[in-house]
Design brief:
CATH class of chain A: Alpha Beta
Order of helices and strands of chain A: HHHEHHEHEHEHE
Strand order of the largest sheet of chain B: 2-1-3-4-6-5-10
Strand content of chain B: 15-25%
CATH superfamily of chain A: Thiamin diphosphate (ThDP)-binding fold, Pyr/PP domains
Oligomer: heterodimer
Number of strands of chain A: 5
Distance between the termini of chain A: 40 Å
Number of strands of chain B: 12
Shape of chain B: globular
CATH architecture of the largest domain in chain B: 3-Layer(aba) Sandwich
Strand content of chain A: 5-15%
Number of domains of chain A: 1
CATH superfamily of the largest domain in chain B: Thiamin diphosphate (ThDP)-binding fold, Pyr/PP domains
Number of domains of chain B: 2
Shape of chain A: globular
Largest interface: A-B, 32 and 31 residues
Helix content of chain A: 25-40%
CATH architecture of chain A: 3-Layer(aba) Sandwich
CATH topology of the largest domain in chain B: Rossmann fold
Distance between the termini of chain B: 36 Å
Order of helices and strands of chain B: HEHEHEHHEHEHEEEHEEHEHEHH
Chain lengths: 232, 301
């Protein structure tokens, strides 16, 4: 256990932090589809903290699916990237916390997102940039939704990153069955066909997520498809 | 003399040797010129395949890691096709980079409208913070590329097959006075200079040269039109006619003024052929330019 001056909350605090933004005590699956996966990443996987948020050698997490960012904000607040006192202002004029995140406003946010299909190409570029600088110890993670996967820009990135062997690149797909036409053959197959290492897990099972996030994938980009309840 | 595209490849290759912060990002087009550089810098010459959304998005991602991407393809596939990537993956992310286009508005007339991008500069005008260079000579292109590589800002370098006979000294900002006269001013953007100089030969007007068109050097235009007589200006651009008219209007807002914007027409020609034929069709040949400039500026002839 390290000592730190920043406040760090546990998983059980996240519901309370979400309530500060939503005003509700109970949260539907739409608000929390990404919650468990983001939590496990920040709690156990990513080498980044408020103290290293600007360290060139940090791991990067890019939230591409920028709508419904409450879970992301709750985790960043829980991990001390910004005080929880910012949460009640969610979406107000002077708040740094918009309904889509802006990296110039949100401490700890690696990209501004909202328009779908931008995060994965940005993550490809980040992995390329880190590799070109010899920073092969830094990982890049990008979270997209299964609906967002409809955007063609993702498929440009998937088709390139596989053959390029971008081992530092990791795509987390939150699958709540919201793609308009589904993904016949499965989402995972889109990645494996392009040469990625890929696995599908229960997006609510923290141990399964952790195992999927940390499994070795030498020489290959990695995709983790996390299945959660269908969007209601 | 090499072409601007050839000069881009040789200059950017040398810049890769000099500055480890730089990376060249390609989508197949232009790759041949970087074969040698790719051998020396395998991780800093990146070809993503024929994928222009990824081209620009990856450029933005590279910039997010602190490097400076030099992103290159034809203008139509660099600015028009992935325009939202230009808007969001550079501007909205608050990062910089150098976009270098080839093809311009009419560099490959036989290729038809799919390979013409007369609207690129007008599109960039909807965004904040882009410097736009339109060099008129390979030597100017090299100087402007070197300046662009040094910065942290967002820069668009518009290479063209059309060139002027001689290079002028370029500084990366502002307009240059190449001829002084007493009645209004004609601004020649980049490769339009030779035609403008020939067209205004013997006319009593000032000619300004704009190898860098954004920011628009409004102060230079304001000085050139003078304080006596009518404030009249003609802007001659190698892309969509009228692209800089609003900037000129703003520069002359404190005086009654008239501005004529000449350039590429909006209507599709649906013609192939040679560049000269397209220049004539758009009224940008010497004879048409002379008639239009002399007909607009008061008292020049």
């Amino acid at each position: 256990m390290t000592t730190s001056t920043t406040t760090s909350h546990g998983y059980r605090e996240l519901d309370r932090l979400l309530s500060l933004m939503t005003g509700d005590e109970k949260h539907g699956s739409a608000a929390t589809s990404t919650l468990d996966a983001i939590w496990v990443l920040y709690d156990r996987v990513l080498n980044v903290s408020p103290a290293t948020a600007d360290d060139p050698a940090r791991d990067r997490f890019l939230l591409s699916k920028g709508h419904g960012p409450m879970a992301y904000y709750a985790v960043l607040a829980a991990k001390g990237f910004f005080p929880e006192s910012l949460l009640p202002g969610f979406g107000s004029y002077d708040s740094p916390l918009g309904h889509h995140p802006d990296r110039l406003l949100v401490p700890g946010a690696e990209i501004g997102s909202g328009s779908l299909g931008h995060g994965l190409p940005l993550a490809v570029g980040s992995a390329l940039g880190l590799r070109a600088q010899g920073r092969t110890g830094s990982d890049v993670w990008v979270l997209i939704g299964d609906g967002e996967l409809d955007e063609g820009s993702n498929h440009e990135a998937i088709a390139y990153a596989g053959p390029a062997g971008l081992e530092q690149l990791h795509t987390l797909v939150i699958d709540n069955s919201s793609a308009a036409h589904g993904w016949p053959g499965g989402i995972e197959s889109r990645f494996t066909a392009a040469g990625w290492s890929a696995v599908t897990v229960d997006g609510r099972d923290h141990e399964a997520l952790y195992e999927a996030f940390t499994a070795p994938h030498p020489g290959r980009a990695r995709a983790v498809v996390a299945r959660v309840e269908a969007r209601s | 003399m090499d072409t601007m595209r050839e000069r881009f490849a040789s200059t950017a290759s040398r810049l890769l040797d000099e500055d480890p912060r730089l990376a060249v990002v390609l989508a197949v087009i232009g790759h041949d010129g970087f074969q040698e550089a790719e051998r020396r810098h395998p991780h800093r010459v990146i070809d993503v395949g024929i994928r222009e959304q990824l081209l620009v998005g990856a450029g933005g991602g590279i910039a997010l890691t602190g490097m400076r991407p030099i992103v290159h393809t034809f203008a139509s596939f660099l600015v028009e096709r992935p325009f939202e990537q230009v808007k969001l993956d550079f501007g909205h992310q608050g990062v910089g980079g150098v976009l270098v286009s080839a093809g311009g508005s009419y560099d490959w007339p036989a290729g038809g409208f799919t390979h013409m991008s007369p609207g690129d500069v007008a599109l960039l005008d909807t965004l904040d913070g882009w410097t736009v260079h339109a060099p008129g000579h390979p030597d100017e292109a090299e100087a402007l590329l070197r300046l662009a590589a040094k910065g942290d800002d967002r820069v668009y370098v518009r290479l063209s097959a059309q060139t002027n006979a001689r290079a002028l000294p370029v500084t990366g900002a502002g307009f240059l006075t190449v001829r002084e006269g007493n009645h209004g001013a004609v601004v020649a953007v980049g490769p339009m200079l030779d035609n403008v100089l020939a067209a205004t030969e013997g006319l009593d007007t000032t000619v300004l040269y704009a190898p860098t068109v954004r920011p628009f050097d409004g102060a230079a235009l304001r000085r050139a039109v003078g304080d006596t007589g009518a404030a009249e200006a003609v802007i001659v651009e190698p892309y969509l006619a009228g692209t800089s008219t609003a900037a000129a209007d703003e520069a002359l807002a404190d005086v009654p003024h008239r501005v004529l914007g000449l350039g590429v027409g909006r209507r599709e020609l649906r013609k192939y052929g040679e560049m000269d034929e397209h220049l004539t069709a758009h009224g940008l040949d010497v004879r048409s330019l002379r008639a239009r400039v002399a007909g607009f500026l008061t008292g020049v002839a």
